Amino acid sequence: MDEIITALLDQDWSLLSDEELLASVRRVETWSRRLYAVALTATNELDSRRLAASQGVSSTAVLLRHLLRLSPRAARRRVEDAKDVCPSAMVSGSRVLSRLPGAAVALRAGTLSDEQYGVVRRTLRELPDDVSPRTRIEVEKQLVAEADRFDPSQLGKLAVRIRSHLDPDGVLRSERNAADRMELTLAQDLDGAIRVRGRLSAETAAVVRAALSPLAKPVPDDTRSAAKRRADALVELARRLLNAGTLPVEGTVRPHIGLTVDLAELRCHTGVVDLDWGGTVSMQAARRICCDADIIPIVMRGASQPLDVGRRQRLVTGPLRRALIARDRGCAAPGCDRPPEWCDAHHLVHWSDGGATSIDNTALLCGYHHTLIHQGEWTARMIDGIPHFIPPPWIDRARTPQRNTLRHPVLGEAA
Ligand SMILES: [Zn+2]
Ligand SMILES: [Zn+2]
After folding, report:
1. C-alpha 350 – ligand 1 centre gap (Å)
2. 400 Cα–ligand 1 center, Å
3. What separation in angstroms does the CA of 321 have from each of 180, 257, 299, 326, 344?
4. Could you tell me the pTM of the whole model?
5. What pLDDT digit, counting tens, does each position of 222-242 carry?
């Protein structure tokens, strides 16, 4: 087997004709599907020997995670995939046939992909108990046969139609269950981003959509995808609620973004910082978050022993913020019309670099422009008491300072 695979990897694929290449792609897919069937058989054997217990782990899924370094989800899925398709041994020693004999044959033959098999398996599991064994076999047969023509998502739609036909009350039931089965998870992805997964009932989803819709509208010349705009809208919604300060207090503090960072590290601009809620951000992002934030200094004894926790120190206080709003009237970046309530107070010289928290060293910036400034290509400077922004040389070779002329018309220069 290893030799065959090595030979396939080493062969010169560019020598194949188009037909040969198409045939090869199909053949390799069939092999990999058949190998998945082999993996399921082996998994089922692991499970029936109860090897997990003798290896000192709680389940076959956990054993697979250790053995193959699969994600928890992939490991659980593999065990469930195996259970439904492989014959199982009874305590008496006799063997019970596969629960999904049709899918078993198709998996062995390599005509059913693991994703299509997932659709078949879930559909059969979700059929109500009063559906006869005979009907179940027919449903399985039909789905397996259609897997020849349909990809997993088309097959899924067909499965929903079959289900609602066999189980008309099920539609009403699932509507009722939907509220109980609502969930939302935020889990770290392999590349460090946070993956948001969840399920809402149709009715509650409408509430969320209604709140996101006005914030997700495309702006002129918007190149963002609809999905990106929705994601931005969700963050904007949360940001506005946090800034409005109307959310319930949690453990005597208002809900906030938390991160712990060494002051010396914050000054050095490179590296990463762990967020209190999980996940990691770059030092650049940490500096932006700290730019307009409550800071609680903690004096450390040695590596990780807090010695003294200082008082919370609000960096941009009420009167200063009001003065900033009176001066900037919204985002101070050139051409931006976002209102003050969308804005953070940006320190022109970061406080960790010795910049003062004063009207002369701060400017209101919307989330977009705050991020842009912290990315470092644009710089901000105070000229005659008004924040000016200096474009990178590839936008303006002369690097002429610009200001927000929407709110501060350039009267002197126009004259
Ligand atoms: Zn800032
Ligand atoms: Zn802006």
Report:
1. 7
2. 21
3. 43, 20, 28, 9, 10
4. 0.48
5. 899 999 999 999 998 988 887
